[in-house]
Protein 1
Amino acid sequence: MNISKLMIALVFLGVLGNYGCAEHDLQSSESEDVVAPNNGDEHDDFDPWDRGDRDEPNQDDQDDTPEPEPMFGPTCSEDAGDGWRCGGDEIEGSDPDTLYMCNGEGPAGLGQNCGSGCVETHDGTDHHCQPDVAICDSDAKTGYYCAGDKVTGGTEGTLYFCQGPGMAMPSEVCDEGCIVAPAGQDDHCAAMSATCDSDAKVGDYCAGEKVSGGEPGTLYRCDGPGTARVKERCANGCVVAPPGSDDYCRASVTCTADANTGDYCGGNKVSGGKANTLYRCNGPGSATNPRACSNGCVVAPPGQNDYCASSQTATCGATAKTGYYCNGSKVSGGKANTLYYCDGPGPAAVAQACSSSCVVAPAGQDDYCQGSSNSTYNLPYKCNTTLTCSNGNNTSSHTGTDRYAYDFAMPVGTSVRAMRGGTVHRVRNVSPPGSRCYNGGGSSCANYANTVEVRHSDGTIGLYMHLSRISVSNGQRINQGQEVGKSGNSGWSTGPHTHVQVQSNCGIWWCQSKPFRFGERSSISAGSRVTSKNSCP
């Protein structure tokens, strides 16, 4: 037999199961057995050459030893710790924009996908989703709005500040909920739970009148001391009644949907108002500043303000604008040495009888009475009250634009009086109670002081700043000594005080201050204690 035939015979014999010679020939000269590599199978003695008498594998004969379960999904590492965590390096297989729950090392519990991204904290607290961007709607004006009330995409229970349509700035998270105010008023955070005081009886009380912790302008029901229940939110204010009578909401007087900014007689675009009474509207919403017209209220032609009829026949000429005019200067039919107020062409209202003479000012400035008390400045607080000037002119904090300003230390709620008569040029109630800058803040609150501006007959503006409450409205004519608001601590402020200055009319609320002196004392500086003679009898 040649070599080729011998090899074929050996192979044939191996296929039939007689391995003896073939196995011996294939063994290494250095070992007795050929051992197959062990890849983790429990059958360590398995020999791929040794078929023996084994049957073909089937389901019944397979090894039933359980395989280890594979780990699927995001997995928290040991470094992730406990709590809510953003996806990232510490969570294997995670999405960075998703919030997961970790309880030490192991599978992560899926929380939620963060549409605006996930925010990691570094102080051991839970991570959280970035709130959606809040947008002031197209009909939003300058003021404060709760999320959902002219603010889209905001966080529920949060108060936002808008300056018209556009990005909404979060002002405050309202722990007790956000209150949507009546039209024309700022929304605000709810106060803590209201409580009827120990001397409350069964009846209705305004917040602050035997009811502690209530919402301003809200009527509550008491059943004696204890929890107060909201009875009504008063759109036009809550009226404290005489002892023995229930408090009540002031009757609703509303400017109709077609009302513009201006003055209207009751019944003319003002519903619920009294006849022969003139109201102020700032578009649809609450009507303010009611003024009784002793000689009747006159409905003017479209485009002009309604007005109180006068017993005089003085008339503002066709070229008159809003402002003060002497008789004979764009005012005809009036009395000599009398200063009149015009709101464009139409009836002229007497502003002041001049004790000396009426001075016609250069074009663009208001006429004024020569040497009258209306041209003299008095201290901005009540007659015979003595207060301390806490900051004067040209100090480290009164420089540049406000170098000629004065600060007077006043407890919150002190009556602030007009230093000089004029017309309310603008009010800014930008920090209502409960808002971020209402009770003082740093430089970020610089533009959030509640202010009143009064335009004087010579065209200058008197600015009253840091108020807690405003008592006048735009366009209202006021006298020297009349209350413009209550002192406070709003805006950039380190303590309750009132900031006053006389400034140019530059078109915005904060303008270059001008030197002026008070009639009570010609020189006042920080530390001066001065007694007011403002409108003393």
Protein 2
Amino acid sequence: MYCVRFALSLIISKILTFGFSQINLENRSLIRIFRFAQVRLHLNNKKIKNCVFYFVLCSICTIFDYIEDTHVRIFSNKFGESLTYSYLCRNFINKGIMISFVVGLILLVLGYFVYGLYVDKMFGPKADSTTPAYEKQDAVDYIPLPTWKVYLIQFLNIAGTGPIFGAILGIMFGPAAFLWIVLGCIFIGSVHDYMTGMVSMRCGGVSIPEIVGNELGNTMRVVMRVLSLILLICVGAVFARTPANLIAVLTPTSGFWGGALFWLIVVVIYYICATLLPIDKLIAKIYPLFGAALLLMAVGIVYGLFTQPGTVPEVTEALTNHYPERGLPIFPCLCITIACGAVSGFHATQSPLMARCVMNEKNGRLVFYGAMITEGIVALIWAAGAIKFADSLNVAGDTPYVKLLNFMTENGAHSADPAILVNAVCNSWLGSVGAVLAVLGVVAAPITSGDTAFRSARLIAADFLHLRQNNVAKRLMLALPLFAIAIMLFFIDFQILWRYFAWFNQTLAGIVLWTMTVWLVKQHKFYHITLLPALFMTFISVSYICMAPEGLHLRDFTGDDSMSYIIAGSAMVVTLLCFHFWFHSYKKKEYTNKNNS
């Protein structure tokens, strides 16, 4: 393990060299303050938290290595040699290798093995614990399933078109999208999904509103029930219309048969079946095929990234807002646009579904943390692929970002349609096989999130109504009202529906992260892994609703977004203070009870 930890730290340090090798600062006097002559890493402590420390330390060393144009020397008490890759790095850059993209992919994978392992060790899964899949087995929702199948179902449940469409729209803000996908996925989204799934498993597989109510009180339980049902019904409505419209475009026919309305009816019928039938009868049988298609399409896009013309921007341009339509600030709009590829509250409604099917708590890291990392990889691939493809297009625009927007709206659409780009990229880069994968990716992906959205809504309603779901009649009694509401939403403008969904989504993520923070405090575990993300998501949600046109749109009154940031910052501070007072009150109460006992 000594050698493994040393090698891991060294590899991370040298991988990050690629990402910062192009930094060129004019004023070098300030940088010399931070000059590192030598960094000694003593890797003799076996605690996993040191891997996180070395991860951060190696990152800092590598950044300043290239800012100062020197070489960081990494030593241990057994390895006394210096290793540098400057020459190799410069050769890669000269050949046009996509440094930020490659580093991002590697960091996501390392995130699973380093930070994911840390989070898993901190939570402490129990191999001998009886999971809800066995404890409450009912042959409908609580069913033990193989780990690989649970992982694929979880991946498709949380993915939908989010990591594809969101990444395509988000990359128009610039390479800041790469940073948000990688950092958000590792430190926020994956932690959010893992904690939700594992806590649900510990609580008997209950839905997220019940978990929130147990930790934050009955008022928040009611709020979460309402928010969750609204979010899930919106997801179901959005992910019914999207594939229906796409199928109608891909299979054009005259009249009712083959039109958008016909396919919408077909999709809704499928949703009803997937919502009512036992999870192993339909969902568990078709999801592996769709999951393989989605991952195969991502692999094909990676191949195109390294073989097709065009360039991918580096993170050295990340602080510049490249969005073609001015007035949309990177922060928080980027964090709202790219949700599923970084962090999404919708995932909190899906993880309990699989918490009822996991056979062993030790499998939780792969199922929950791993599925989110996989989604982040897909999002990163599509973000890079979209901007590289746009750069090679012969359309109007002086930057790839303008070309990308113009290409997605060239048919007179009122707003950018990422499905146009997905279809074009797959057909251009992958040929006839790509056309099939495009259909599966942009049609099957939303369907596999829409069906589980309605299923989650049914289970949430069943939890707070205390209604067992052991027969079809009871399931139908809850499902029909949900579908009736969703059908009414079909007639609302798609863009309005999607904007409110996006805000609800990230607001829900913030509430869930606060819930997990309280749970960790009560379990005497390291709660900062969710506290800091909770504060960040609080700022994101509040600032967005303050500045967004569908929200308060304070810019109309102040002329800029400063007031929105001030209100969001104040909300974050107030929330932190409330947590601080609760924390000390809880600890005092716990201390008193301990002494009395």
